[in-house]
Amino acid sequence: LHCLVMEKIDGLTLEEWLGQNNQLITEAQAIDWLKQLIVILKEIHPKYLHRDIKPDNIMVRPNGQLVLIDFGAVKQLTQKYIIQQITSQNTSIGTLGYMPPEMMNEQEAYPQSDFFSLGRTFVRLLSGKHPSDFTQDLQTQQLFWRNEATHISERLLNLIDFLMEPDWKNRPKNTQEILLSMIDLLMEIINDNHNYYNKILRIRRVKHSNYNFIKSGVLIFSIVLNLFLIGLLIKVDYPRHVVVLLMFVVLSILFISLVFPLEFPLFIKRVYKLLLSRKI
Questions:
Q1: Which of 129, 167, 185, 276 could form a disulfide with 133 if both were Cys (CB 3.0 to 4.6 A apart)?
Q2: How many domains does the chain have?
Q3: Which of 177-181, 205-209, 269-273 has the lowest mean pLDDT?
Q4: How much is the pTM?
């Protein structure tokens, strides 16, 4: 008696995840999941082809780790990667919408066949629609799906389309090529973010320099006015003396707040506490 023992996985399939969350995955999530699945294929492809990659055959654990399941269609790689044609009417390999042209038309499969199914899987995850719901170019067989994934950058869309090239020879040669493409993608994203934050910092510097200029002008004005008020205190009599003194106090507070912007609020807070405790 021969059997295949498989680990019980806690979690949801990606198809179930879509239904339960009722939302599309983000670009960051797509990059993370794509990386995980490519690493899994990197371990499988030296010896086997999965031949039925789709959201129903990928599970996500509670910690976010992906697991590729249902190896019932797995075929051991031969030198020419030839698939034995299935003669039974009740038996099929692959799933419509996710199955590459070479498996449908020629009953042949290659490592690139799994890449095609993986690309179609991300069409489902990024658009929310089944790949069969989209039309194709009659000549090139390219899938028209990008308008349903407008929240995704063109770079990632290009990589997904690269995985789904109709001719398997035009797809990535191996998992290493895909991982290198993803590294380039991440570097471009990091560079774009760096340029964006540099732009924000430049704007903030301009605003900060303008603020410093205004603050310096107000500070000079308050000093000059305080000197003027000190001169008035000597010349004026009561009750004008009180008015001038109050103006002097107000301008002095303004002066202190400009010179010591961080310490001044703490000073006011301490004075307020002292007043409440009736110590002064």
A1: 129
A2: 2
A3: 205-209
A4: 0.66
